[in-house]
Amino acid sequence: MNESKDPAAGPTGAATPHRCGLAVLVGRTNVGKSTLLNALVGRKLSIVTPKPQTTRDPVQGVVNRPEGQIVFVDTPGFFKTHASRLVDRLHERARRALQGIDVVVHVVDPSRAIGPEDEMVWETLRDVAQPRLLCLNKSDLPERPYVDAWKARQHAYAGCYEVSALTGQGLEALVQGILAHLPIGPPLYPPDQITNAHQRFLIGEIIREKVYLLTDDEVPYRTAVEVHAVEEKRDKQGQPLCHIKASILTANPRYQRMLIGAGGQRVRQIGQAARLDLESWLGRKVFLDMDVLVDRSLGR
Ligand SMILES: Nc1nc2c(ncn2[C@@H]2O[C@H](COP(=O)(O)OP(=O)(O)OP(=O)(O)O)[C@@H](O)[C@H]2O)c(=O)[nH]1
Ligand SMILES: [Mg+2]
User: Cβ atoms within 10 A of the Cβ of 126, count?
Assistant: First the structure.
């Protein structure tokens, strides 16, 4: 028998069976799920801001090791606020992401007290049949007074890991802990593919991140980004140039005026910050043609 033909066999043959499966990152908003996904994959796939409810769509990121492949799924965080259709939709998306997965990674931030949003996640995870791992993030912070309160709950989990998504501390132990719970099987993704997200989606997300970082109050939550076209061109010197046409869509004319700013200053600032990020992310010059439009369907 030719062992290398066995799809579940590792690189050294049948002695180290290859594992593969989906691990979903769930938790209250702002605990660092997206930062963790990016750190694990080694590339920015999911946007990160200090504001709550940054992530809207589950994004997959792939981590390969000789022992196996983990497909991480980042999800929108739970956030208890005034009822809104957006919040309901985000919670529904997070819950739906729990279907068909192999391991649940409950990410928490022990620098903050265990609050109602953590309890919502706790309740949601209670009926989940798959193994659950507790991930105590932000271990780089000097003060994390709620570590012990979380550790008191670790009996409900198959493992508990202290990590810092910011510094990378403890991440490999988490990866190995997850791999141990995955079924034996061949990789779901080829080794050079790190995500299921399309380039156009990721470009829109980078613009959305800048809207979150550069506008206040309700504005980011009543805003979406649409990328109309991405074209590969050449600049006057013959260098590769990525030409992007996008719109920031917002629910009402007042937000539109805030996003445009006096003399178009705010939208230029957003465009400039997005362009710089896109250039380093795409590895070539970017021309970003962006406007701000009203789309009333984004209202409540
Ligand atoms: N000090 C420290 N800060 C972190 C760490 N991980 C994330 N953060 C910060 O926490 C904030 C929230 O991070 P996100 O990754 O956007 O959190 P999230 O859980 O994805 O949030 P939602 O998408 O809103 O659910 C950002 O300001 C991050 O820089 C960490 O390990 N240490
Ligand atoms: Mg996020």
Answer: 9
